[in-house]
Design a protein that fits this description.
The complex is a heterodimer. By secondary structure, chain A is an alpha/beta fold. Chain A is built from six helices and seven strands. Chain B has two domains: 127 residues, 2-Layer Sandwich (Beta Polymerase, domain 2); 319 residues, Cytochrome-c3 Hydrogenase, chain B (Orthogonal Bundle), CATH 1.10.645.10. Classes of the chains: A alpha/beta, B alpha+beta. At the A-B interface, helix 1, strand 1, helix 3 and helix 4 of A face helix 4, helix 5, helix 8 and helix 9 of B.
Chain lengths: 169, 507
């Protein structure tokens, strides 16, 4: 372990420079965020029916290359600690109530970010008896980050846009 | 002659099912099959429905044979397999929910996937409107002094898929864990039925995101078997390359995440870097980090370029350099071993009874690997080992992954060599899909275990029916058994060492 730790000190960090906030996301967020949060966002992730692909890439945000926490953004275990709900999936009918209750448990002010193509409008799963639709058909959405799944960089650009808006107030 | 081939010959062969036989049998033969399963002669691979029929895929491992048997259920009833062979229990509860098929003698008649939220009953069978709300879901009772319950989920405290766990504990010790799943049921079977092959392939690739290559491959092989077509040899090599990269990415991720659940974050950080490197190599080689929609019926979506091959070679060099010290770190850290050794034990009899695939089965003495049996090209052209252990604990499941990483790295290297030597470089890697009809099945070894696919292709290239069975169907119930007697705080560790899929199971 000592050698691994020493290597970590001596080698250049793997972490990549911060990408720019996504323009489209900044436009979508116009007027949505009114309160200054400082550089701190707490995110509660909710899988409302995804295939788990989006979760894999959201996980990757925590690895050494993307290092989400350097931006003051972190994942929290409870909606009661969260500013942002990061919701994936076409919302299944079996998850609808759980999403609504998680949303209700998140204190105001709060933002909802829908992640992945399915989260926009249900994607490929539209028309199924088991699917309620996109996230916005169940809870109000402030920002969509598209992709199947979106890459960690795309996720980061969207989240940075949210933070930037929050800063500008 | 094995008992399985006898059974098939007594039934009415369905002429165009490939590569293994499917036969329509009568209730007596169905019961005979149940007896073989209950005795442990055969392994249940899957049980699924159609509106007026029930199917069961079984494996005769000593006889190296797989067959599907089907029973017509004009009265929507069939003799329950689960009554004598518990691994069929959740499958029968699901078939009951989706198709309205009633297993006679089913020991547990609570709904499984139907949470009373669809607005209709039996969505894939004789659909009916909901006339009365379903009674509240009753968890199995645990009685005794000092027992308390801990409900967890469906929304969990991490970046995890949703499901409900109901623990009954005596102090710290878990007396019973009961799972309730189905929250991410998307109705994929229903969406695929009646759609074209392209759309069906996309849906198949979205059953379980971490196994998108395995599902794409299983679906493609089943379609190709159904219409009786061959894919270019180079495409088969590229498919195996993607499948092994997917295995590597998931195993690296899992090894780190298991250690993280024992609060050993340095392994998580370093394994996370390795996982990211695999995904980046996949992006460079195939244009998508998870390689989604890259395996398609007929071949693969694109060939491997020089740049992609270089990226994968660099990945191999990096993995050979940085993974062994991590393995040594895992092995030499007593505080970590203290958490993983003897925790979450699963014995060989249960692993065999449930036909547990992947690292869950192989850590508990079950040698099965779909790359060997039924086997598919190009794995018959490469030597590789299937590691097996019998200690059956969290540590064993970590070690199976570690050893499989070694095997996959070697396979990737040899596949790259073969691709470079190949005289067919630059030739098409996607054959035009022929317009045949028929039925096909496939069993593919994903990182988590064997994925089964079955399709029936009708005229005009329409997928009339499709079944996709995740290995988790047989692993989830074993987690309930493995956690018994462990402390609640070790549940995340046990759960991660199984790493069952929610979406793959809920479908």
């Amino acid at each position: 372990m000592r050698k691994l730790l020493l290597d970590g000190l001596l080698r250049r960090p793997l972490t990549e420079p911060a990408p720019a906030a996504e323009d489209g996301a900044l436009a979508e967020l116009a007027g949505a965020i009114r309160r200054r949060l400082g550089r701190s966002l707490s995110i509660r992730q909710v899988d409302a029916g995804s295939c788990n692909g989006c979760e894999l890439e959201i996980h990757a945000l925590n690895n050494a290359f993307y290092d989400l926490e350097r931006f003051g953004i972190r994942f929290v275990a409870s909606p009661r600690h969260a500013d942002v709900l990061l919701v994936t999936g076409p919302v299944t009918r079996n998850m609808r109530e759980a999403l609504e209750r998680t949303h209700a448990a998140t204190p105001d002010p709060k933002w909802v970010v829908a992640v992945g193509d399915c989260a926009v409008d249900g994607g490929l799963f539209v028309g199924s008896y088991a699917v309620a639709g996109g996230v916005s058909s169940v809870v109000p959405v402030d920002l969509h980050i598209r992709g199947c799944p979106p890459s960690p960089t795309a996720l980061l650009r969207g989240l940075l846009a949210l933070l930037e808006k929050a800063e500008r107030g | 002659m094995t008992a399985l081939t006898d059974l098939i010959q007594e039934g009415r062969r369905v002429g165009d099912h490939r590569p293994w036989p499917r036969a329509a049998v009568d209730a007596a033969a169905w019961r005979a099959a149940i007896a073989h399963l209950a005795r442990g002669d055969w392994t249940l691979l899957d049980l699924w429905g159609e509106p007026d029929r029930v199917h069961m895929a079984v494996l005769d491992e000593p006889g190296s044979a797989i067959a599907t048997i089907s029973l017509d259920c004009p009265g929507h009833r069939f003799p329950s397999v689960a009554r004598h062979h518990p691994p069929a229990l959740r499958l029968e509860r699901a078939a009951r929910d989706l198709y309205g098929l009633e297993p006679d003698g089913l020991p547990d008649t609570r709904p499984w996937l139907d949470h009373d939220r669809w607005g209709l009953r039996q969505p894939l069978g004789d659909t009916r409107p909901v006339t009365a709300p379903a009674p509240p879901y009753r968890f199995l009772p645990s009685e005794g002094e000092g027992l308390h319950q801990i409900p967890v989920g469906p929304v969990h405290a991490g970046i995890i898929e949703p499901g409900h766990f109901r623990f009954t504990a005596n102090g710290e010790t878990v007396v019973r864990l009961e799972q309730r799943l189905g929250y991410v049921h998307k109705g994929i079977e229903g969406l695929i039925a009646g759609s074209g092959i392209d759309r069906a392939a996309q849906l198949a690739g979205r059953v379980s995101g971490d196994s998108t290559v395995a599902y794409g491959l299983a679906f493609a092989l089943a379609v190709e078997a159904a219409v009786g077509m061959q894919v270019p040899p180079r495409a088969r090599l590229l498919r195996a390359l993607m499948a092994e990269l997917e295995r590597l990415a998931n195993h690296f991720g899992d090894i780190g995440a298991i250690c993280n659940d024992a609060a050993f974050a340095i392994m998580h950080a370093h394994c996370g870097v390795l996982r990211e490197r695999v995904l980046r190599a996949a992006e460079a080689a195939f244009g998508h980090r998870l390689m989604r929609d890259r395996v398609v019926p007929g071949g693969v979506a694109g060939d491997l370029g020089a740049e992609g091959a270089t990226a994968i070679r660099a990945l191999l060099a990096e993995a050979h350099r940085s993974f062994p010290p991590l393995v040594a770190l895992y092995d030499e850290t007593a505080s970590l071993q203290e958490r993983t050794v003897s925790t979450g034990f699963l014995g060989e009899p249960l692993a065999r009874q449930y036909g547990a695939g992947g690292f869950v089965g192989r850590a508990s003495g079950r040698t099965f690997d779909a790359r060997r049996l039924p086997g598919y090209t190009p794995y018959d052209e490469f030597d590789f080992e299937v590691p097996v252990r019998t200690d059956g604990d969290v540590n064993a499941r970590v070690w199976i992954r570690i050893q499989e990483v070694g095997q996959s790295l070697a396979l990737v290297e040899r596949i790259l060599e073969r691709l470079a030597e190949g005289a067919d470089s630059g030739s098409p890697v996607l054959a035009t899909l022929q317009g045949g009809t028929g039925e096909g099945s496939a069993l593919v070894e994903g990182f988590r275990g064997d994925v089964l696919a079955w399709v029936r292709i009708g005229s005009d290239g329409i997928v009339e029916r499709c079944r996709l069975r995740d290995p988790s169907w047989f692993q989830w119930p074993l987690l309930e058994a493995a956690i018994e007697g462990n402390i609640v705080a070790d549940f995340p560790l046990c759960n991660k060492s199984f790493n069952c899929s929610y979406s793959g199971h809920d479908l």
